[in-house]
Each structure stands twice: as structure tokens, then as C-alpha cells.
């Protein structure tokens, strides 16, 4: 009887230890999976950072910082709009210049504030890119896709006009 009790206690100990090891292994495995997933979402390249705020607050911020507002007026179905986002806006030279010189905003012209914006600023094709001062006046407006060099050149030229 004594021997049976010892065997049961040993088995119980081994089972608890095995359960702890299994739990620890599962925890490490899941932690690694979440870490890899989080790293995959981290942008590898620098890109234009777009403010996520209401238009009136954007105007106030631009006025306070003495900067122009860069507006990416787009539609979700627009191919050249997607190309701007995935190529041009992720160019390190473009990102560096735009992030240091402008308050950047990206607006879907077919929903939310984009609807009023499109009407006020006469946006009827996509993509439309605008530079607007803190008073809401258009400094420069252009339509269509830009390469990185073209976009930087357009922005620098427009900035000298403001």
C-alpha cells in the first residue's frame, strides 16, 4: 500500500511538472507569434505621417505652427491614389520633407468630412493634392500621380509662393 502511495505521489509530481512545462512552452510560443506579428506591422520605411483629426483643428494647428497643410484627397477605389500611398508617400526623402514642413492630412472624398471638403475645394478627380494655408486658402492644387521627385519639387515650389 505504501509503495502504491509513493508511485501515485511521484506520478502526481511528474504530471504537475509536465503541465508547467507545457504551459510555459505554449506561453513562449504565443509570445513569439505576437512579437513576429507586431514586427510585421511595423513600417520598415519612413513614410508621410497623416494627422487624424477634424479639419477645423487641422487649420488651427497649421496656423499655430506656421505651416501649410498638405492634403491627399483620395477615393478608396482609385488606383493612382493607392500608388501614391504605397510608393511616393513611403519614399524617405518625401517623408522627411513633408513631415518636417507640413501638417499632413489624408481625406476620403466620398465619406465623412471629405464630402464637404470636396465640395468646398472643388475636388472632382483623384488623386488631388493640395497645399492649404492656416486660413483655409489654397496655395497650390494638382491632380494625378506624382513620383517622389515630382512631389517634392511641386511642394517646394508651392511653399515659396506662400
From TrEMBL:
Residues 30-160 form the Thioredoxin domain. SUPFAM superfamilies: Thioredoxin-like (SSF52833). InterPro entries: AGR/TXD, Thioredoxin-like_sf, Thioredoxin_domain. Keywords: Signal. It comes from the Bacteria. The keyword Signal applies. Signal peptide: none annotated. The keyword ATP-binding does not apply. PANTHER family: ANTERIOR GRADIENT PROTEIN-RELATED, THIOREDOXIN DOMAIN-CONTAINING PROTEIN. This is Thioredoxin domain-containing protein.
Amino acid at each position: 500500500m505504501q509503495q502504491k502511495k509513493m508511485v501515485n505521489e511521484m506520478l502526481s509530481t511528474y504530471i504537475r511538472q509536465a503541465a508547467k512545462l507545457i504551459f510555459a512552452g505554449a506561453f513562449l510560443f504565443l509570445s513569439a507569434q505576437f512579437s513576429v506579428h507586431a514586427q510585421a506591422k511595423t513600417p520598415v520605411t519612413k513614410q508621410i505621417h497623416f494627422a487624424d483629426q477634424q479639419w477645423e483643428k487641422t487649420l488651427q494647428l497649421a496656423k499655430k505652427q506656421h505651416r501649410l497643410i498638405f492634403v491627399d484627397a483620395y477615393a478608396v477605389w482609385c488606383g493612382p491614389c493607392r500608388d501614391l500611398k504605397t510608393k511616393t508617400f513611403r519614399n524617405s526623402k518625401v517623408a522627411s520633407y513633408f513631415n518636417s514642413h507640413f501638417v499632413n492630412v489624408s481625406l476620403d472624398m466620398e465619406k465623412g468630412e471629405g464630402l464637404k471638403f470636396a465640395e468646398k475645394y472643388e475636388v472632382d478627380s483623384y488623386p488631388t493634392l493640395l497645399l492649404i494655408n492656416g486660413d483655409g486658402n489654397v496655395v497650390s492644387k494638382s491632380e494625378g500621380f506624382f513620383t517622389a521627385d515630382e512631389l517634392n519639387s511641386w511642394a517646394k515650389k508651392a511653399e515659396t509662393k506662400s
